[in-house]
Design brief:
There is one protein chain. The chain has about 280 residues and is α+β, with helices and mostly antiparallel strands. It contains five helices and 17 strands. It folds into two domains: about 180 residues, Beta Barrel (Thrombin, subunit H), CATH 2.40.10; about 90 residues, Pdz3 Domain.
């Protein structure tokens, strides 16, 4: 069963900088089912619907934002009722209310970004039996008291066309720590502050025996195109780092900003090794 990150950089920022916080010892809840509709209504005014347009691909991405304050709750108990609010239906539509109990704490999953193909191991997550969907990422996971206990970030792939899936959320204490770092403007290997940089390629996520990743799409007039990279080429090195996956490519680009010039090495479709430079541009 695969796990999918439900959005790209905004929620992924919080994923990557999550620290380990001590949560209560997992214990079965004996509380009666809660009124999750009332809990959702208490938080809904603080939820923001986000739409991202990627002009060169004519693609639309959706996500969710939450206005947070120190009154988010770090107390989570296995079995307690929750509701996740999100933007899976898109801006202009009512927020989704994905309900389900907490089924596990401190979960570790290997999650894949459905947009870039990059993947990463994510630790310390809250698992809920709720049909969280793409577009819900960044939304609040709320307990029966109307307190935010987590930030939705990933889900099982198999349930996206039907019920019975699992959702995963970053504990609110971890998210608050990340938000504090973002507010301070302190960039790190796991936190990118400011406009993302774009190379202008889409790459294959299929594993290869040889080094490098196959280019499956090139943005016309973009940095990679101007450097001479074409569909079917294999990128092997970016900015001095050997590229062995879409994840590595994403992480290297996250260290850079628009205007940075990076060195590229690739193998073209005739088998010849080539090199060049690319001036990165603003990403979506």
């Amino acid at each position: 069963m695969g796990i999918s990150l439900l959005g790209r950089r905004l929620p992924a920022l919080l994923i990557a900088l999550a620290a380990v916080f001590a949560l209560v010892t997992p214990a079965a809840s004996v509380a009666a089912p809660a009124d999750t509709a009332a809990a959702a209504a208490a938080v809904e005014p603080a939820v923001v619907q986000i739409t991202t347009k990627i002009d060169y691909q004519q693609a639309i991405g959706t996500g969710t934002g939450t206005v947070i304050d120190p009154g988010g709750s770090g107390q989570v108990v296995v079995g307690e009722s929750t509701v996740g609010l999100g933007n899976a239906r898109g801006v202009g539509a009512p927020l989704t209310h994905e309900t389900g109990p907490v089924t596990a704490l401190n979960r570790t999953v290997n999650a894949e970004d459905s947009l870039t193909g990059s993947s990463e191991e994510v630790n310390g997550l809250i698992e809920v039996a709720a049909d969280v969907r793409p577009g819900d990422s960044g939304g609040p996971l709320v307990n029966s008291a109307g307190q935010v206990i987590g930030v939705v970030t990933a889900a099982t792939v198999t349930f996206q066309m039907g019920p019975g899936g699992k959702g995963f959320a970053i504990p609110i204490n971890d998210a608050m720590a990340g938000a504090g770092q973002i507010r301070s403007g302190a960039a790190s290997p796991s936190v990118h502050i400011g406009q993302p940089a774009l190379l202008g390629v889409g790459v294959s996520t299929q594993a290869r025996r040889e080094a490098g990743i196959i280019v499956r799409d090139v943005m016309r007039g973009g940095p990679a195109d101007q450097a001479g990279i074409a569909i079917g080429d294999v990128i092997t090195v970016l900015d001095g780092t050997s590229v062995d996956s879409a994840t590595t490519l994403t992480y290297v680009l996250d260290r850079h900003y628009p205007g940075d010039v990076v060195d590229l090495t690739w193998v073209d479709r005739s088998g010849q090794q080539r090199s060049g430079k690319a001036a990165l541009v603003s990403g979506p």
